[in-house]
Amino acid sequence: MSHSPSQHRGFFITFEGPDGSGKTTQIRRTAEWLRGRDIDPVLLRQPGGTPLGEKIRGILLDSRAQDPVSPLTELALMFADRAQSIHEIILPALHEGRVILCDRYTDSSEAYQGAGRGLGSDRVLAVHRSVCDDLQPDLTILLLPDVEKALERARRRNQRHIQQTGTDENRFEAEGEAFYRRVHTAYGDIAKREPQRVALIGPGTGDDGIEAIATRIREIITERLEQHLRNVSSV
Ligand code: TYD
Q1: Residue 66 sits in which domain range?
Q2: By Cβ atoms counted within 10 A, which residue in 121, 124, 200, 232 is the most buried?
């Protein structure tokens, strides 16, 4: 089912995982490593990344919002943001042959809106096909820590935030444990369904600790990027 943008020289990498999975640190380290190899990556986060997307992000993550956003509205806004970043950033970067590091993409919608909010994968993937023209990443790094450890970390982080600001960290982080568990399970299911695209890094893959995970990510990207460049140069 995966339509890869591999006709382009560019390489589209997404980073996925539940809140508290250490994604942000790993994206930063990956970007530094790439720069050291003379590759200047395009960095992007979802929701956000474009002027319109940052406004949508504000609406979506504001836990103080007086008017609750319905699950379907949430889904539509996530995809409105995504469609804009594909148009403004992702496709132009792929055409220029750039490496893109994107913090979250459609797997997040499948995990959070599809499983977390209960809208179902089929509906989310149908929206992806129509609104994103089914544009798939070349590679997805999925950080899926042990669910109990991740829940503990997320709780501590949210608690700190409440103490400092008087508000929950964001609408999603304020969700309950059952929601978080559904998100976690959905990510695991996506990895099983699409093992070619999704590189799962988590307990059971022997990758514990920031350093070990960073090394593993570098190995995966090196291998997949070389493979990709061989493929595009042979067409
Ligand atoms: P953010 O602060 O960027 O969290 P993180 O650092 O964990 O990525 O907030 C993004 C939140 O938006 C996160 O809780 C997941 C959620 N989200 C969805 O629910 N659906 C989506 O399609 C995307 C892209 C994000």
Answers
A1: 5-234
A2: 124
* Encoded amino acid at 166, one letter: G
Percentage of residues in the chain having pLDDT higher than 70: 89
Residue where the block lists tokens 């792929």: 94
pTM, two decimals, is 0.92
When pLDDT is cut at 50, 70 and 90, the band that residue 6 belongs to is: low
Query: Which segments within the chain are labelled E, that is strand?
Result: 11-16, 42-45, 99-103, 139-143, 198-201
CATH at 177 = 3.40.50.300
- For the chain, what is the domain count? 1
List, chain by chain if needed, residues with CB within 6 Å of any ligand 1 atom: 19, 23-24, 45-47, 61, 78, 103-104, 108-109, 112-113, 170, 172-173
Largest CA distance in the chain: 57
